[in-house]
Automatic annotation (TrEMBL), chains A, B:
UniProt key word S-adenosyl-L-methionine: no
Organism in which the protein naturally occurs: Sporosarcina psychrophila
Ranges for domain HTH lacI-type: 3-57
Database matches in SUPFAM superfamilies: lambda repressor-like DNA-binding domains, Periplasmic binding protein-like I
Keywords on record: DNA-binding, Repressor, Transcription, Transcription regulation
Keyword Transit peptide: no
PANTHER family per record: LACI-RELATED TRANSCRIPTIONAL REPRESSOR (PTHR30146), RIBOSE OPERON REPRESSOR (PTHR30146:SF95)
Protein name (database record): LacI family sucrose operon transcriptional repressor
Domain HTH cro/C1-type, residue spans: 5-47
CDD domains reported in the protein's UniProt record: HTH_LacI, PBP1_Qymf-like
Gene3D superfamilies: 3.40.50.2300, lambda repressor-like DNA-binding domains
Length: 321, 321
């Protein structure tokens, strides 16, 4: 049998109202009474019902987190930091993997609102989801522009692209290509592409779908068709890894014949592929800043500080360039 | 202003009780009335309060998921599958990263019980957490033995260790070492170690802490002190990657002078380090089986089927052996 509040009251020799007061830290309670109640809670192994409490307090202490997929090293690391920070502030994370699909993301955002979350952090690929207009619901977008009213926290994608491409140029590359995901409006990787196109004379960008086997096949086709390629700026580390794999298969020497630079620089990439030159995103800072902004909005019901926060990135030079 | 149930009732020209019946699918409602209510919900952009509903139904549709860290490729991929499966069944995931710390895991499990989760999935490193004894709370442990009453789903760790070590022996290795995490009782990696110790004449196992820089330093020390080593069975892919990194630094040729095999075989590892020979765990099957078992316990209040489920692993032979 579950232990109830009434059982605690009985064991402590006080009224249920007194137990409730102790739990909610409301009204005057003597230290002695408080101690008696706390001892009874400990003794009986009582767990207050936080669902009932949240209904009463109109605060659930739930934060919704929508990511494309937590199995991607970047979103995995970001989710870890976000969850840890929220946990230290007394908030719980409801994890949603949208797979980048509009319908899934819409269903998740509806579910989060119905569950009375105090706020949502979105790393989304989808604009135009109506639920994000829900009145007064604090939302912070990470690295994506969702709507004019939703603040954005991210890193400096244009600078990242510039650092990457300039590094390839400095290393002597004459025929640099850029490999990116599907072209969508206003996703941050498009700023990386913009930097590439601004720096290179005859830019050639390939848009690949996010599917591992296809990526390897597509890159093989690209390198066979364009043997003069001596530099690749990949828009994430997984794509860069696929370039290295294809180069090995085709006996193209890296970095002598081909230089490859990735993007993200997660701990996982740095462990599994330490030889990769990459642009490191400040993932922990992105997590801290976006949670702080969301907490400000939850506490003050409106946005203070800048609408957009752009954090610095870092070039990590290793063996592939 | 938030739209309320009463607003929907007014717009639909019915009583609040009728709206509530439609939402909860209770009692007789004519198709016409149902349509009127649904239209009003759509029109007014009404979101039912699922917190209040869950209090009434004594079901929250929340599942707690405790992992050491979602940023590890294995737990990231496992969390993705678990969340996707739960979501398709109408359940939401509360994500908890325990960092393998007893106190954190205890706090998380208490929080989950207070929030009335319908069940918990634990990939834990800690035994003896009292909250796991909470009456009638369905719990399934993934790949860890938590308590005699808590069912376990995992893969065949002894077979995995055997496949790995036998493969190194078959490839001609004469001096095989094993690199594992800290020795703890009854964690599954200890079965991998057991298989190694059963197959090798003079087994040498090194226990490393889970910290990247330390791992690389420790492995360098091991390889310098033990130059006769020609085979390494690492208990996960990240450790195997660190071995490859050190081998490169020390100019030890892989696989000619040293053969390395890892463990886990996640999608991320296979993308970033496709040349690694490894033991692939059936991560999606582990997710499916553990969720199914938990759902059985939630629906039937008791365990049906076996107490322990052991799923098969697979040897993936690549370039490092």
């Amino acid at each position: 049998m579950k232990v109830k509040l009434e059982d605690v009251a009985k064991a402590a020799g006080v009224s249920p109202t007194t137990v409730s007061r102790v739990l909610n830290n409301r009204g005057y309670i003597s230290e002695l009474t408080k101690k008696k109640v706390e001892d009874a809670i400990e003794e009986l192994d009582y767990y207050p019902n936080d669902v009932a409490r949240s209904l009463f307090k109109k605060r659930t202490n739930f934060i919704g987190l929508i990511v494309p997929t937590v199995s991607n090293p970047f979103f995995g690391e970001l989710s870890l930091y976000i969850e840890n920070i929220c946990s230290s502030l007394g908030y719980k994370i409801i994890l949603c993997n949208s797979s980048g699909q509009f319908e899934k993301e819409k269903a998740y955002s509806t579910m989060l609102i119905r569950h009375q979350v105090d706020g949502i952090l979105v790393c989304s690929y989808n604009r135009g989801i109506d639920t994000y207009k829900y009145p007064k619901l604090p939302i912070v977008a990470i690295d994506h522009y969702l709507a004019p009213t939703i603040p954005v926290v991210g890193s400096d994608n244009y600078m990242g692209g510039k650092l990457a491409v300039q590094h390839l140029i400095d290393r002597g590359c004459l025929s640099i290509i850029h490999i990116n995901g599907p072209l969508e409006l206003e996703t941050p990787t498009q700023y990386r592409r913009k930097a590439y196109e601004d720096l290179v004379d005859n830019p050639v960008t390939y848009e690949l779908q996010f599917d591992e086997e296809d990526i390897v096949l597509s890159i093989r086709k690209i390198l066979l068709e364009r043997p003069e390629t001596d530099g690749i700026f990949a828009s994430d580390d997984l794509m860069a890894a696929a370039c290295l794999q294809v180069a090995r298969e085709l006996n193209i020497q890296v970095p002598e014949q081909l230089k490859v630079i990735g993007y993200d620089g997660t701990k996982t990439t740095r462990s599994l592929l330490p030889q990769l030159t990459t642009i490191k995103q400040p993932i922990e800072e992105i997590a801290k800043t976006s949670v702080k902004k969301l907490m400000d909005m939850i506490d003050n019901s409106e946005l203070s500080g800048p609408y957009e926060t752009v954090l610095p990135v870092q070039l990590l030079i290793n063996e592939t360039t």
